[in-house]
Amino acid sequence: MALAAALREYSGVWFGWSGQTTGQHTGQVSLQRQDGVTVATLDLEEQDRQEYYNGYANRTIWPLFHYRVDLSAYERSFSEGYARVNARFAKALAPLIGDGDFIWVHDYHLIPLAQELRKQGVRNRIGFFLHIPWPAQRLLTTLPNHAELTSALFDYDLIGFQTEDSRSAFEDYVVKVAEGEARGRRMGAFGRTVEVGVYPIGLDVDEFEASAAGEVAGAEFARMQASLAGRSMVLGVDRLDYSKGLEERFLAYEQFLQDNPDLRERVFLLQIATPSREEVTAYQDIRARLDAVTGRINGAFATVDWVPIRYVNRTYRRDELAGIYRAARVGLVTPLRDGMNLVAKEYVAAQDPEDPGVLVLSQFAGASEQMDEALIVNPFNREEVAGAVAWALTMDRAERVRRWSLLMDGLRRSDVRAWRDAFVGDLRGHEPPARRIAS
Ligand code: GDG
Question: Which three-class secondary structure state does DSSP give residue 193?
Fold first, then answer.
């Protein structure tokens, strides 16, 4: 979503895994035109999918970078798969790169890509953006090949993090573990230097507002309003992932029900949790635990005409989601760790300016560095989250409008264009952008 407009504007090529597996790797790139963008994809072998994608990316790096050392698995076949696939990507991509091109590499699946492209003789400017947190150095050093992984980042020209928290954790590693140095935006280690910056991702606010004002969102909003029956809705929207703190959220909501018997039947929690990475055991486990917790809370508190938690495991259209956000009095966004968290921003952007809802936001979401006017909570502290929900539900309109307006100003200032232009500007060394080539 965030890159689509940039790719059209710079007449870019999107390159990545097709999502398909094939019997034997051929290196064959398939090229297509989609909405004015050239999309180049490569199939992977089943072994790659297991070792690279389900393995090193989603069972080693994802949990570790979200501070779940307990869930992070390290197997030699995973890191071999990770290296192999990145090398294959680089081989397939190198012939598509022209002289003046710059390359923007996204996320933790592709950390060694620049290193592999350099081996293929690519000398172009290459930037890397990490969507997830960079972990504290004491956690990162639990990874057996942490030095190999981090040193690969020094083959980029620019590294972008979502937050100052991640940037400083990276600096800490460079200085204390790699015995390198940091001078302003330049960091040096492993015999090389790289530029490092903070680029918080934002929304396409106009696009999101338009979809929130559209017919589908309106219909969904009306449907939700009717189903509220005078009650206030507390809303969570997440990929079903252990980093999103869903179990802790349900327990905090249970605490809220216990602490506020007068509010009980006047409120319900709607949790939309879209299934994700279902082949990985930790995701099957969290799903089973959440089923059990919601069942227990609903069993304990429900009455004949009220259910405290509506828990939904399906996907909604983006414009439907906008209508649901708008109908919620409280947006409850309490990840245990999150690179940014766009749901927090979407919730704010979807509100009615005359009667906005209140955002309750985890201090461990990257978004909390920018969204001071939300009710910022520690998601591990049940009482605090329960108290914030009660406060949000009873907050007067003037205070809700005051907080919302400031949050909305921040979303407009730091939107998806600001994110993209800052990163691309630094990557290109602030040359004017190439003229758009009509598609
Ligand atoms: C990673 C980082 C960082 C959810 N359910 C439905 C649906 N969604 C959409 C939301 C939102 C997106 O998915 C989720 O984005 P988040 O930012 O909350 O989280 P991750 O997926 O973990 O993303 C994160 C992000 O990258 C960007 O840099 O913020 O920290 O982990 O846009 O609306 N969309 C639709 N139907 C659903 O049911 N259409």
Answer: strand
Rounded-to-integer distance, Cα 337 and Cα 135, Å: 10
What pLDDT does 437 receive? Answer: 40
Residue 335 has phi, psi (to 5 degrees) of -65, 155
- CA distance from start to end of the chain: 19
Residue 106 bears catalytic tag: no
Q: What is the pLDDT of residues 97-120, one digit of tens each?
A: 999 999 999 999 999 999 999 999
Output the CA 313–ligand 1 centroid distance in Å: 15
- Looking at residue 291, its pLDDT comes to 94
Q: Which two tokens stand for residue 378?
A: 């520690």
Question: How far is the centre of ligand 1, averaged over its atoms, from the C-alpha of 341 (Å)?
Answer: 7
DSSP letter assigned to residue 303: B
CATH architecture for residues 4-199: 3-Layer(aba) Sandwich (3.40)
Index of the ligand 1 atom closest to the CA of residue 338 = 30
Judge whether 305 counts as a catalytic residue: no
Amino acid identity, position 104: W
From ligand 1's centre to the CA of 346, what distance in Å? Answer: 10
Q: How far is the CA of 108 from the centre of ligand 1 (A)?
A: 16
> How high is the pLDDT of residue 431?
57
Q: Is 313 in the pocket of ligand 1 (CB under 6 A)?
A: no
Distance (Å, whole) CA 408 – CA 351: 10
Same CATH fold assignment for domains 4-199 and 205-415 = yes
* Sheet of strand 13-22: strand arrangement: 13-22, 37-45, 29-34
Report, in this order, helix, strand and coil percent for the chain, each rounded to 5.
50, 20, 30
Per-domain residue ranges for the chain? 4-199, 205-415
**What is the C-alpha to C-alpha distance for residues 75 and 72, in angstroms, rounded to an integer?**
10
- What stretches in the chain show pLDDT beneath 70? 430-439
Specify the pLDDT at position 75.
95
Query: How far is it, in rounded angstroms, from Cα 17 to Cα 127?
Result: 19
- Assigned fold of 205-415: Rossmann fold (3.40.50)
- Ligand 1 close to Cβ of residue 277 (< 6 A): no
Q: Whose CA is nearest to atom 26 of ligand 1?
A: 131
Q: What does the alpha-carbon distance between residue 275 and residue 190 come to, in Å, rounded to a whole number?
A: 40
Is residue 239 in contact with ligand 1, taking CB distance under 6 Å?
Answer: yes
To the question of pTM greater than 0.85 for the whole model, the response is yes
User: And the tokens for 159?
Assistant: 């590294």
Give the residue carrying structure tokens 């909003």.
Answer: 221
